[in-house]
Amino acid sequence: MKLKISAFKEPKHLGVVSCVSWNNTEDVFSCGDDHQLLKWNVASNECVVVATFPEDFFPTCMNLFPKSGGPKHQLDVILIATADGRFHIINNNGRIEKSVVAHQGACLVAQWSPDGAGLLTGGEDGLVKIWSRNGLLRSTVIQSDLPCYGVAWSPDSGSILYSKGNFLIIKHLNSNSKITKWKAHEGVIVCVAWNANKTLIISGSEDGYSKIWDSYGQQISVSVKHDQPITSVSWSPACDMFVIGSFNLIRLCNANGWSHSMDRPSTGSIYSLGWSSDGTQVAAACANGNVLFAHVIDREYTWKNFACTQTGRKVVTVKDIMADQSDQLDYPDRVIQIALGFNHLVVTTVKQCFIHKLTSWNTPVTFDLKDGTVSLILLAEKCICIIERSGISVYSYMGRLLASPRYGSRPETISRSTVTLGPDTLALVDQTNTKTIHVFDLPTGLIVRSSSDNTVTKVTHKMTVSDISLSQTGPINDRQLALLDYNRDLYVVTVKDPKPKFTKLGSQVLSIKWSPETDLLVGLRANSVVAWCCPKAKQPDWLTLTTITKEIIDPGRNPALISIDEGIAVICRGNGSLFHISLAVLPEKLLKHLSVNQWQEALQLCRTVEDETLWACLAILAWQYNQLQVAEEAFCSIRQYYQVSYIQHLRSSIPEKLPSDEVAAL
């Protein structure tokens, strides 16, 4: 993955460009020391002067009103802070609606709240103030003796992050909670950004480092030392990557901090960075008067023997590695999101969604999108989930709309870790109460139910939930949800139980994945990878017998689990490199036999291999599904003789088969 950078041959600004902001996926506003507000169109490569401001108008920061907040008539307003201590509310035609004296000295930061209810400003006088949407002062929340160069809202508009010298501080507005303060850098902090799913913060400093933090002040990652101060940082809307700007440098990084690409344009310092709402384009304000535009290309996706790469703005290349065949897919509009899996390739452009079967590239299923600003695509065996700014939609692979689950918060801020899709279920972490998970039942037949008919189950954990994942096989009543909480403890719960019970499987787990074909759950720790072959096992000793652990050599900082295929785990090291580890190939094969009730084949596999873990898996699952004869032999092979005696007692006293739920109760 890298940035493809383009710029106009001649700078359109006559001085330093201090700020940029996207109006939509095609239009960008920029403002600089030449007192001009320019509007750039990326599609047509046109630039027009919107307004020319007075000679004493020197902008320091610009922010457009959030598209999802407030009345529609107020969506087209621009907030600009200037060096004379004022902030200005300007309409899209360049007319100044209101100017307010906010600070003594320069007004360094001005930002609308994510919900559009107000705005904040930070100044050279060390004050941070909150104002109403119309520019009336509500409160002065911060009084500092040092300039506030970096200030940011939390995604829920309930807290403020600001810098004070080399310290970062979080102040909660609506509670009496103590402030969170920590030393973040050795030099003055110049810029900060808080991502939309409220878990990660990035800071840039004069010491040349950019660092990632969680909202409790714990360091997640630190960059290499750059030659010059970090002057700007910005998260992508999906929060899966970010960009940093410095002198003659722009770097694209993964959310864990490792670098995708680095470019060194001759632009001087990059003072401002902005992402388009679809997360595919970046605009940069440069000291030499240029505005740079960058498009994210070379995004790679793999599934089994297929590899998919976006090679251009409208071009996707798909390669079958086994057959050594390559196909190039051209689209009428710019490609936004790509997803590959479950024998399908799904591509969304700014207007449409294309669903390709891996066996037939030239006849895709096509349908129009509601909004066009797609932030995330999730795939399951029977359905697709597309998350747009206008809402969440679930489609079949034939392009039929199955459901539109209602979600109260802003859908575009949903991250991949807080949403998961199963073959018949969609689960979402509540953004207002991160201990609660909403589980939506999805229609799987031809009859499509309305949104109000969808059954919603609420599952509440005792701690903040940071990551969730739904199992991909079995009936809906057996659907399992795996979750990681803030302490990195792993729990599994059957969401359709009348009284859901959380079973703890392990601790210090960094990421989790279910196998797409069985109920095999894999978790990644700092130095090992763990497979739980029977997460439904209720007894601790049974869980121990069916758990496989393998050590990892030098995984690096913040490794991530990418996928599970045929019992082989794909892991991304801290430096971005991928490696495969054979973890549970035979248990995966055993679980495939049991998923289609091939008990004799499973028994033959265990007799051939003579592995204790395989016998334990067979014993537990045979017991749960009332296969007493198979369970007896399996328990005997793992020396669980008390269980063998109990099964023999059952078989002798009750000759007919018991229902599985009664056996489980016994």
Task: Describe what you observe in this structure.
By secondary structure, the chain is mainly β. The chain has a domain of 71 residues. It has 7 helices and 55 strands. The strands form 14 sheets. Strands 1-28-27-26 form a 4-stranded antiparallel beta sheet, with no helix packed on it. Strands 2-3-4-5 form a 4-stranded antiparallel beta sheet, with no helix packed on it. It has a 4-stranded antiparallel beta sheet with strand order 6-7-8-9, with no helix packed on it. Strand 23 and strand 24 form a beta hairpin. Helix 3 runs antiparallel to helix 4. It is elongated and about 95 Å long. The relative contact order is 0.06.
Helices and strands in order, then pairings?
Blueprint: E1 2-6, E2 17-22, E3 27-32, E4 36-41, E5 46-52, E6 59-64, E7 77-82, E8 86-91, E9 96-101, E10 107-112, E11 118-123, E12 127-132, E13 137-143, E14 151-153, E15 159-164, E16 167-172, E17 180-183, E18 189-194, E19 200-205, E20 210-214, E21 219-222, E22 232-235, E23 241-246, E24 249-254, E25 259-263, E26 270-275, E27 281-286, E28 291-297, E29 300-303, E30 306-310, E31 315-320, E32 325-330, E33 335-341, E34 344-349, E35 352-357, E36 360-368, E37 374-379, E38 383-388, E39 391-396, E40 401-403, E41 419-421, E42 425-429, E43 436-441, E44 456-460, E45 465-470, E46 480-485, E47 490-494, E48 503-506, E49 511-514, E50 521-524, E51 528-532, H1 540-545, E52 547-551, E53 560-565, E54 568-572, E55 578-582, H2 585-595, H3 599-609, H4 612-624, H5 628-637, H6 641-653, H7 660-665
Antiparallel strand pairs: 1-28, 2-3, 3-4, 4-5, 6-7, 7-8, 8-9, 10-11, 11-12, 12-13, 14-15, 15-16, 16-17, 18-19, 19-20, 20-21, 22-23, 23-24, 24-25, 26-27, 27-28, 29-30, 30-31, 31-32, 33-34, 34-35, 35-36, 37-38, 38-39, 39-40, 41-42, 42-43, 43-44, 45-46, 46-47, 47-48, 49-50, 50-51, 51-52, 53-54, ...
Helix pairs in contact: 2-3, 2-4, 3-4, 4-5, 5-6
